[in-house]
TrEMBL record:
Protein name (database record): ABC transporter ATP-binding protein
InterPro entries on file: AAA+_ATPase (IPR003593), ABC_transporter-like_ATP-bd (IPR003439), ABC_transporter-like_CS (IPR017871), ABC_transpr_MalK/UgpC-like (IPR047641), Mo/tungstate-bd_C_term_dom (IPR008995), NA-bd_OB-fold (IPR012340), P-loop_NTPase (IPR027417), Transp-assoc_OB_typ2 (IPR013611)
Organism (species): Leuconostoc pseudomesenteroides
UniProt keyword Translocase present: yes
Domain ABC transporter: 3-234
Keywords on record: ATP-binding, Cell membrane, Membrane, Nucleotide-binding, Translocase, Transport
Length: 358
């Protein structure tokens, strides 16, 4: 099942344009993520694909058929919601087969399908319980089972894990991804969580105020973000975006630090993007500053160092550090892993192309 979004536009009655020319192709069997901050338009796209809201312009094509004017029930897709949307007075089994029963599917087929999906989501023992007696994770599995039982080849998921605690969320991420791969279904998944986007998606669409910032695989977005918005969206702690000047084949940071480079660009102002893990603490490092923040993680440490002129640098190392606030920390940037952006934030060079000696 391939889904194509062509020039989707959406304005609500108040005239606010919440989607501006959305174009995308979602290939059969892909786990496709829509990610962005609250209000960026993720749910609006999902609802437009499902047919829950009309769009002002553009087309939704499913398997080469224009479905823009079709009601949701004729689009061959099912949906999993954040709040589970289960019926509290029905048992798990009744909730799961509700749609099949409504379509008068034969009883024995209903039972067969029910057993199959209960087995898939590991809920056999709970089939006679009411949703109120289940944990959040189990409720979300019921809602997943209900989506799977319909045999729809496309499942739309709107923040399905956001009501779960961190540990359960991590488990469910794996389960949903494994199920999707096992069944070969196409999933379009909305989240505001960069970790979900990175860990689950084959392709990720990054949205900002109703516009697409970039579409790519998780590692493409991480290693070659189209702009500083995308660079800043992925990674924790977030990337350092340092104002640098290019002069005499060197980047100058704060007029104090100089980094030689062989990148061939005009002299002037740029933004150097350095991920916190691409900085090495070293006794005689080329850069130094005062420690202003330290976060011991057990398996590593995150620190922040003030290098003056209102610029601080986030550093992530995989060791435990014995440092006190105010200590001077000296470090080197692995400049061959840095990203170079124009002053307006568009990517100019990635990785090796910025390669240099500090
Ligand atoms: N029925 C509506 N009438 C007017 N504006 C709306 C309506 N529904 C959504 N919006 C606006 O559309 C924009 C996009 O909303 P949408 O729900 O798609 O964002 P989102 O990225 O899914 O956000 P969230 O993560 O908070 O759900 C927001 O600015 C929102 O206020």
């Amino acid at each position: 099942m391939t889904i194509e979004l062509r020039h989707l536009k959406k304005k609500y009655d108040n005239g606010e344009e919440v989607l501006t020319d959305i174009n995308a192709t979602i290939e059969n069997g892909q786990f496709y993520i829509l990610v962005g901050a609250s209000g960026s338009g993720k749910s609006t796209i999902l609802n437009a694909i499902a047919g829950f809201i009309p769009i002002n312009d553009g087309t939704v094509v499913i398997n080469e058929k224009d479905v823009t004017q079709l009601p949701p029930k004729d689009r061959n897709l099912s949906m999993v919601f954040q709040n589970y949307a289960l019926m509290p007075n029905l048992t798990v089994a009744e909730n799961i087969v509700f749609g099949l029963a409504a379509r008068h599917t034969a009883k024995d087929i209903q039972q067969q399908k029910l057993n199959d999906v209960l087995n898939l989501v590991h809920l056999e023992e709970y089939k006679n319980k009411k949703p109120g007696n289940l944990s959040g994770g189990q409720r979300q599995r019921v809602s997943l089972a209900r989506a799977l039982v319909s045999d729809a080849q496309i499942i739309l998921m709107d923040e399905p894990l956001s009501n779960l605690d961190a540990k359960l969320r991590a488990e469910m991420r794996k389960e949903i991804r494994a199920l999707q791969q096992q069944l070969g279904i196409t999933v379009i998944y909305v989240t505001h969580d960069q970790t979900e986007a990175m860990t689950m998606g084959d392709q990720v669409m990054v949205l900002n105020k109703g516009k697409i910032e970039q579409i790519g695989s998780p590692l493409e977005l991480y290693n070659a973000p189209a702009n500083t918005f995308v660079a800043d969206f992925f990674g924790s702690p977030s990337i350092n975006l340092l104002d640098v000047k290019m002069r005499h084949n060197s980047f100058h940071l704060n007029d104090q630090f100089e980094m030689l480079t062989n990148v061939d660009i005009d002299e002037g102002q740029y933004i150097l993007g350095v991920r916190p893990e691409n900085i090495v603490i070293s006794e005689n490092g080329a850069l130094r500053g005062e420690l202003t923040h330290i976060e011991p993680l057990g398996d590593g440490t995150n620190i922040e160092v003030n290098i003056g002129q209102n610029q601080s640098v986030r550093i992530k190392v995989s060791e435990q550090l014995d440092l006190t606030l105010g200590d001077v920390v000296s470090f080197n940037v692995l400049i061959d892993r840095a990203l170079l952006f124009t002053p307006s934030g568009q990517l100019l060079h990635t990785g090796k192309s910025v390669s240099a000696v500090i």
